């Protein structure tokens, strides 16, 4: 029995959305149920996903389940920081495959404006190993910046090549009405922007955002009654790496992404060249470049060449992040994976509008939690 | 002896490797070695996941290391803003373990290059707290 995605939804991603987390989730949920033959009462279980350190609500699954009218069905909470909703999709897949539940709603959200900037700053410092690395004043951009310097040293990657990834993101952001930043940027703007953590500058970094996403998953039997255009989960991979930088074997790539990718490709019986369109976790430009290499879209060290040749644009060898990616959409942590899956589902259903990749049959989602801590790769098929 | 005084700001006060701070006060940077399998751990661990042993011996590091990667941070989490900008670095110790620390403020930006020789040494703060940093050789 295969597992299908029958509906996807997303709110606009924004800074300071002005509504509550329950209302954000409702809007994504409503969007996912639009145009499909399914009512909330038919949903057997829900998986709610967020990064709890940004939530005021304790145990948000109960609140969201109630507000969406899903009680008394069971609800569960899934967390793997920035990849929480990909983890939620894996949980949903397992529920359906095991026949515990037939129809599962996976809802990811984050309202990063719910806590103050000072509180965000304080939490950011504790994202690393709190005993041995946080006492040195580290935070997310610094972690990826250290990967960037190592990548540049090992492969000769340049700041211009990293900036080209943001230029691509800006171009496609203009076509995504749900993106937080809808603005084209030039290579020169990127290179002249203020430095956040060298060599990463402002445009090399994504921004915190508020938003929610929803993915409705069902068994094969149910899917056919709910929609004419189900998208099938062909492969799922997940892996972890060490939290501490000192224990990492690879400083110029994310081994958890390599491992998750291998699992997903094997399960889907495909190779990297068979992927028609991909969403990768571009929390920083260097993260997208490492993803090209870690997923096998090019050889290790050839990520710079791939973007130089514009191979990750529509019309290239492998279009990547044609919805603008995290760099333009914004990154509401718990909602991000679901948003990436939504983009690929719309592509495979032929509903991606001006960013449609012609004839897309197979799509891939790469969603990373932390600085290469949790790797999740999901392969979808029309 | 509490671990609480380690670092500019600390988040962990109780640990089985709290003696690390005592050694640091004496000017020594110590790793732990599993008595059973012989694996060397830095930062020090009290427990070996390879053989589930809790029998560890303290062992001093030479402090000689090479720069693996780094970043100059222009933004900082709460409590570190006054030190900006600072350079976070990862270095490879000659014993094979890696160390995550800051580069000493004495090192000029244009001197920094991956592969450069560094020395890991204790650093005392005026308020009595203690840490280690990577110094110029």
Secondary structure layout:
The complex is a heterodimer of chains A (382) and B (137).
Chain A (H helix, E strand, L loop, with lengths): L2 E8 L10 H13 L11 E5 L10 H8 L7 E4 L5 H14 L5 E9 L5 H8 L15 H16 L3 H15 L13 H6 L2 E3 L2 E2 L8 E10 H7 L4 E10 L14 H14 L8 E3 L5 H10 L8 H6 L16 H5 L3 H16 L13 E8 L4 E8 L1
Parallel strand pairs in A: 2-3, 2-4, 9-10
Antiparallel strand pairs in A: 1-7, 1-8, 4-7, 5-6, 8-11, 10-11
Chain B lengths: L18 H7 L4 E5 L5 E2 L14 E5 L3 E10 L12 E8 L4 E6 L13 E8 L5 E7 L1
Parallel strand pairs in B: 6-8
Antiparallel strand pairs in B: 1-2, 1-3, 4-5, 4-7, 5-6, 7-8
3D architecture notes:
- The complex is a heterodimer of chains A (382) and B (137).
- Chain A has 382 residues and is α/β, with parallel strands linked by helices.
- Chain A has two domains: 138 residues, Peroxisomal Thiolase, Chain A, domain 1 (3-Layer(aba) Sandwich); 217 residues, 3-Layer(aba) Sandwich (Peroxisomal Thiolase, Chain A, domain 1).
- Chain A is built from 13 helices and eleven strands.
- In chain A, the strands form two sheets. Chain A has a nine-stranded mixed sheet, sandwiched between helices. A two-stranded antiparallel sheet of chain A has the order 5-6.
- In chain A, helix 2 links the parallel strand 2 and strand 3.
- In chain A, helix 6 packs across helix 10.
- The longest helix of chain A is centred in the middle third of the chain and has 16 residues.
- By secondary structure, chain B is mostly beta strands.
- Chain B has one domain.
- Chain B is built from one helix and eight strands; from the N terminus they run αββββββββ.
- In chain B, the strands form two sheets. A five-stranded mixed beta barrel of chain B has the order 4-5-6-8-7.
- In chain B, a hairpin with a 5-residue loop joins strand 1 and strand 2.
- Chain B starts with 18 loop residues before the first helix and ends with a strand.
- At the A-B interface, helix 4, helix 5 and strand 5 of A face strand 4, strand 5 and strand 6 of B.
């Amino acid at each position: 029995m295969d597992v299908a995605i029958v509906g996807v939804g997303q709110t606009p991603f924004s800074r300071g959305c002005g509504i509550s987390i329950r209302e954000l989730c409702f809007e994504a949920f409503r969007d996912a149920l639009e145009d499909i033959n399914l009512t909330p009462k038919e949903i057997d279980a829900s998986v709610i996903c967020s990064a709890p350190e940004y939530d005021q609500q304790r145990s948000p699954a109960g609140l969201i389940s109630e507000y969406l009218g899903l009680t008394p069905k069971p609800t569960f909470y899934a967390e793997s920081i920035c990849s929480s909703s990909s983890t939620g999709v894996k949980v949903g897949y397992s529920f359906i495959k095991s026949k515990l539940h037939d129809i599962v709603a996976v809802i990811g959200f984050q309202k990063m404006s719910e806590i103050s900037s000072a509180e965000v700053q304080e939490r950011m410092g504790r994202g690393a190993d709190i005993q041995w690395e946080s006492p040195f004043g580290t935070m997310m951009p610094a972690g990826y910046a250290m990967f960037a310097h190592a990548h540049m040293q090992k492969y000769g990657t340049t700041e211009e090549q990293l900036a080209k990834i943001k230029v691509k993101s800006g171009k496609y952001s203009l076509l995504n009405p749900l993106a937080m930043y809808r603005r084209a940027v030039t290579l020169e703007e990127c290179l002249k922007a203020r430095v956040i953590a060298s060599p990463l500058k402002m445009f090399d970094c994504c921004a915190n955002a508020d938003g929610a996403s929803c993915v409705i998953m069902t068994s094969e039997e149910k899917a056919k009654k709910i929609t004419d255009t189900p998208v099938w989960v062909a492969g799922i991979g997940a892996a972890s790496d060490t939290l501490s930088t000192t224990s990492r074997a690879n400083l110029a790539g994310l081994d958890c992404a390599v491992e998750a990718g291998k699992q997903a490709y094997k399960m889907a019986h495909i190779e990297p060249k068979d992927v028609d369109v991909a969403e990768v976790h571009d929390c920083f430009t260097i993260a997208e470049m490492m993803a090209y290499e870690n997923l096998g879209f090019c050889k290790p060290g050839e990520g710079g060449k791939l973007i130089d040749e514009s191979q990750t644009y529509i019309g290239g060898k492998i279009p990547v992040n044609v919805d603008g990616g995290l760099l333009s959409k914004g990154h509401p942590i718990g909602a991000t994976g679901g948003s990436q899956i939504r983009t690929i589902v719309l592509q495979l259903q032929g509903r991606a509008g001006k960013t449609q990749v012609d004839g897309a049959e197979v799509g891939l989602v790469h969603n990373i939690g932390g600085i290469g801590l949790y790797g999740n790769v999901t392969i979808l098929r029309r | 002896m509490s671990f609480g005084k380690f670092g500019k700001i600390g988040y962990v006060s109780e640990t089985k490797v709290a003696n690390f701070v005592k050694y640091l006060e004496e000017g020594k940077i110590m790793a732990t070695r599993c008595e059973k399998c012989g694996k060397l751990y830095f930062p020090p661990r009290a427990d070996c996941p390879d053989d589930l042993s809790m029998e560890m011996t303290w062992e001093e590091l030479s402090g000689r290391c090479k720069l693996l990667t780094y970043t100059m941070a222009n933004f900082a989490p709460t409590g570190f803003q006054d030190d900006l900008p600072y350079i976070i670095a990862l270095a490879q110790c000659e014993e094979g373990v890696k160390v995550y620390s800051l580069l000493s403020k004495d090192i000029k930006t244009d001197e920094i290059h991956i592969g450069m020789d560094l020395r890991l040494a204790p650093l005392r703060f005026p308020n009595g707290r203690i840490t280690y940093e990577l110094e110029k050789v």
